[in-house]
Amino acid sequence: MKEAIDTLRDILDKEACRLSNLSETESETVPASGKWSKKQILGHLIDSAANNHHRFVRAQLGDALVFPAYSQEQWVSVQNYQSEAWSQLVTLWTSYNRHLAHLMASIPEVKRNRRCFIGNQPPVSLEFLVQDYVRHLRHHLDQILG
Which residues, 6 or more positions from 85, have their beta carbon under 8 angstroms from its beta carbon? Predict the structure, then answer.
């Protein structure tokens, strides 16, 4: 798990500046019908941070976590990330993830194997959720930054 936390911190140190350097126009361009703009992708990553924040905390509070899946398309649509300022999205994403890195590092080893049930998927460990969160984040940042 330490590797995932270090990777997240490294991503934040390197990529927040790159994100900040994108223009408002670059961030709001929709590449094709049915595709998300960079703003919408970053908004999706903020949603992912919010959902996983709850998972990382709640999984430590009981014997197992039972958490609903979330409809990413609807979350992005309802929050209308396309109309929010790019600089605000970058600041929120960066701050939220710095907190998540702190939270991840605070998870006691004895709680890392907690079973987590998300939607109708097979159970996974809290540690898997942490690692998967960082993989997911990297995937979408690659879409934004190329």
Answer: 24
Start-to-end Cα distance in the chain: 26
Torsion sign (Cα): 117, 122, 128, 130:
negative
Instruction: Give φ, ψ of 41 to 5 degrees.
Output: -65, -45
pLDDT, tens digit (0-9, with 9 covering 90-100), for 59-101: 999 888 899 988 899 999 999 999 999 999 999 999 999 999 9
Biggest distance spanned by C-alpha atoms of the chain? 47
Q: What is the DSSP-derived secondary structure letter of residue 71?
A: -
Q: Are 35 and 76 in contact (CB under 8 A)?
A: no
Cβ 93 vs Cβ 46: under 8 Å: yes
- Kindly give the residue spans of alpha helices, DSSP state H, lying in the chain: 2-20, 24-28, 38-61, 72-79, 86-105, 126-145
CB 115 within 8 A of CB 54: no
